[in-house]
Amino acid sequence: MQLFYLADLSDSTFEFTEDESKHCIRVLRKKKGDELTLIDGKGTEAKGIIEQDNPKKCSGIIVAKTHHQRNKNYTLHLAIAPTKNFDRIEWMLEKIIEIGVDEISFIETNTSERGKINSERCNKIAVSAMKQSKQYYLPKINGITSLKNFLKGCETTSSKFIAYCPTPVTQTLFNQIPLPMPSHSILLIGPEGDFTQQEVEEAISLGFKPVSLGSNILRSETAGLVGVTSFANKAQTT
Amino acid sequence: MQLFYLADLSDSTFEFTEDESKHCIRVLRKKKGDELTLIDGKGTEAKGIIEQDNPKKCSGIIVAKTHHQRNKNYTLHLAIAPTKNFDRIEWMLEKIIEIGVDEISFIETNTSERGKINSERCNKIAVSAMKQSKQYYLPKINGITSLKNFLKGCETTSSKFIAYCPTPVTQTLFNQIPLPMPSHSILLIGPEGDFTQQEVEEAISLGFKPVSLGSNILRSETAGLVGVTSFANKAQTT
After folding, report:
1. Which residues from A are below 8 Å from B when comparing CB atoms?
2. Would you call B230 and A230 a contact, using CB atoms and an 8 Å cutoff?
3. What is the ipTM metric for this complex?
4. Element of type H or E holding A225
5. Nearest-CA residue of chain B relative to A177?
6. What per-residue string of b and e applies to B216-227 under the rule 16 or more CB within 10 Å gives b?
């Protein structure tokens, strides 16, 4: 089933962006009268009928709407220092969204290599991964912020983890996630050169638990993947 | 700590390939008399001293050897139908080797899109990921084979799983891996269009257990990643 994304489905009509119009009419060869499945990334699934099969501005009417609950019993906010080669983060973004994550932040640390991210591109990847994996919720992607600022904003969340290589391997993230699953969790992944001792100590003083991701040394983006999958697996523990 | 790979460390001297020589002498600027850490991908770690710092043929003597045990209490053989865009599989290879896998096979199925793989390139990725993640064992990478032939070769392994989208999400791989960890397991991941019903039935008749990887639809290479991480997580269950 092909899904089409439109951020606002509150109306009884729809009009696609130029990109989505082109994809719908030129690539998928949809025509006037065809039925489409639309999602808004906030849980709404709508049935739409094309009235104008214009490849630059496809529009139509909405004939039915249903609301989907989230398919996970937890939310996860991943905060990661972007890698020098941003391709690696883009790959990771696609993968972790397929697997299941709710919010992503990019963090500038003392040793991180990159201070800019392309938010528009990240959002495109997120929409595409959501559609591809047949999900109804679009993760929120935040711009880049300093570690200091990020930590300040985490005060009210109690389930907080910081992946840090020197942590004993007996203390893995997977084992440290409590059951039943905490409703909101934050996982912080460091840059290619890892966090500094001072950064980790600051996070710990603010309630973050240091965790290991196993005995192998993982690249930043692999650490992100393993972190998100560890939450998904823990939630499956019977 | 930088690791250098040489398939055979049984001798008391070493001589690098042209690639590894160039990397060692030109890129890392190592010189005659410098000490290096060498691994053979079979558990051996050796201390070597450079005698000839030739950027095309770096050689030297081995002064000490230690043997490392595997750092996992299970072995995992991942068999996957290669994706049309092989970049996706190459990227997955790097990631699953970082996370921990012992053997990888490429499978041709009824609906798979690609019949060829570049074994040399796959092996280079494997060596690089092993060194990067500071592991001492190189996974074995097999060429492409038909699903039929692959299944025939799995008879003696009792812990076998086939990821198949229509499997109920209550029956996830993570939950189906028994504890204590089976010493050898095989995980079979289908092509972009999934296995056919007939292929799955054949695998089941040969002892494969159908498993789900959760409620989201995952791309093939994401399924491989989640599968390998599920084994790693299960082994961490206390």
Report:
1. 71, 91, 95, 98-100, 132-135, 172, 174-175, 214-219, 222, 225-226, 229-230, 232-234, 236-238
2. no
3. 0.93
4. helix A220-235
5. B237
6. bbbbbbbbbbbb
Percent of chain A with pLDDT over 90: 84
H/E stretch holding A14 reads strand A13-15
Torsion of CA B106, B107, B113, B116, to 10 degrees: 50
In chain A, residues with a C-beta closer than 8 Å to the C-beta of B229 are 225-226, 229-230, 233
Give the minimum alpha-carbon distance from B146 to chain A in angstroms, rounded to a whole number. Answer: 28
Closest Cα partner for B161 from B185, B130, B137, B143? B185
Residues of B with CB under 8 A from a CB of A: 71, 91, 95, 98-100, 132-135, 172, 174-175, 214-219, 222, 225-226, 229-230, 232-234, 236-238
What 3 state SS string does chain B have? CCEEECCCCCCCEEECCHHHHHHHHHHCCCCCCCEEEEECCECEEEEEEEEECCCCCCEEEEEEEEECCCCCCCEEEEEECCCCCHHHHHHHHHHHHHHCCCEEEEEECCCCCCCCCCHHHHHHHHHHHHHHCCCCECCEEEEEEEHHHHHHCCCCCCEEEEECCCCCCCCEHHHHCCCCCCCEEEEEECCCCCCCHHHHHHHHHCCCEEEECCCCCCCHHHHHHHHHHHHHHHHHCC
Which chain B positions have a beta carbon within 8 Å of A225's beta carbon? 95, 225, 229
Which domains, ranges and CATH numbers included, belong to chain A? 3-67 (2.40.240.20), 75-235 (3.40.1280.10)
Per-residue pLDDT reduced to its tens digit, B3-18:
999 999 999 999 999 9
The residue written with tokens 């001792």 in the block is A197
- At B13-71, the pLDDT tens digits run 999 999 899 999 999 999 999 999 999 999 999 999 999 999 999 999 999 999 999 98
Task: Encode pLDDT of A92-110 as tens digits.
Answer: 999 999 999 999 999 998 8
